[in-house]
Specification:
single chain; mainly alpha; elongated
């Protein structure tokens, strides 16, 4: 179970970095309106990463 929680945590961290990359790419090469969508996506991914990390830490502490 801990591996699944860790995998979701890594997934959301990667999605956060992808969102940041796409935000920068969109600001340089594309329309500036797209920047806000990618920034919101990155923000939500970062929040979900933090939630998953807290859940994993709580799970590890409860198993000890």
């Amino acid at each position: 179970m801990n591996k699944v929680v860790r995998a979701f945590e890594i997934f959301w961290l990667i999605m956060c970095f992808v969102g940041i990359f796409m935000c920068v790419y969109s600001a340089i090469k594309r329309d500036n309106q797209d920047v806000f969508y990618f920034l919101a996506f990155s923000f939500v991914s970062g929040i979900l990463y933090a939630i998953r990390r807290r859940q994993r830490k709580n799970l590890e502490n409860s198993n000890k």
